[in-house]
Amino acid sequence: MSARTTAATAGTDTSTSNPPLDVLELGVDAGRVLSPALVAELDAFCDRLEASAATGRAVGVLRLTGGAGEPGLLDEGVDVHLVSKWERVLRRMERLGAPTLALAGGECGGVALDALLAADYRIAAPDLVLRLHARPDGMWPGMAVFRLASHAGAARVRRAVLFGAPLTAAEALRLDLLDEVVEDARREESARAAVELLTAFPGPELAVRRRLLIDATSVSFEEALGSHLSACDRSLRRERERAQGSEWEVEV
Asked: What confidence tens digit (pLDDT) does each residue in 155-206 have?
């Protein structure tokens, strides 16, 4: 993994109401083997993204790369405790108050596939191939299986999960596992447009709705009602405060 931070200021309103945007990037290679260092790197990325979002606007960009051949994931040093830590940090990223964007291409499996499926917005190159990690006893039964089934439906990813059938970029787009498939020449342009989309709403509002969407598949109506009412109340109060502020400005 590699990480960097950039400040997106071109065309950005730098007033108090719309602070500059911090774009934090992290590179994830599909051939990378799961390790404590990898877990720590993603956890540190979440720390930086969370801290940046707390003081202004921020978006995390995951650049997922892969080459030919079998994607990495496991070696003899991996145990279930390490797998648990990896799944927990992915879940943390999936629930951050800041949005995340994934840019992927080539053979996307292993840790890169995990990161892709946990991102809010996903842009892929036409050569992208999604592939679960193959083990002697079958496909790796990690939480990528859960996310594939949750996002696309169990029947639509059955062959990928049971038999390791690869998913091309076009197939993944049809299954709503991707938001866009674009040529390399248009990748950065599409990424900039996606960042604008992800940061169009104030504060953590996108994250609130993401949380409601994720929870909708696992909780009952009665359990979900309180969270939805709380989000509705937050939205109504924000609108009242905005209207009162506008009236005060008119009176002055």
From this structure: 999 999 999 999 999 999 999 999 999 999 999 999 999 999 999 887 688 8
Q: What is the pLDDT of residues 28-70, one digit of tens each?
A: 999 889 999 999 999 999 999 999 998 888 999 999 998 655 5
Sorted by sequence, the CB contacts under 8 Å of residue 83 that are 6+ apart come out as: 34, 142
Q: Determine contact, residues 205/237, Cβ cutoff 8 Å.
A: no
Identify whether residues 193 and 225 lie together within a single domain: no
Q: How far is CA 173 from CA 106, 179, 203, in A?
A: 15, 7, 29
- How far, in Å, are 98, 130, 229 from residue 218 at the CA level? 23, 25, 18
pTM of the full predicted structure? 0.83
Among 118, 111, 127, which residue's Cα sits nearest to residue 67? 127
In a shared domain, residues 144 and 45: yes
Domain tally, the chain: 2
Q: CATH number, domain at 87? A: 3.90.226.10
> Domain residues for 150?
2-198
Same domain, yes or no: 157 and 71: yes
**Structural tokens at position 100:** 């995340």
Alpha-carbon gap, residue 12 to 22, rounded angstroms: 11
> Are residues 107 and 227 both part of a single domain?
no
Query: Are 30 and 50 members of one domain?
Result: yes
In this structure, what are the phi and psi dihedrals at residue 16, rounded to the nearest 5 degrees?
-60, -35
**Residues in the chain, overall count:** 252
Q: How many CB atoms lie within 10 A of CB 46?
A: 22
Contact 161/132 with Cβ under 8 angstroms?
yes
232 and 176 in a common domain: no
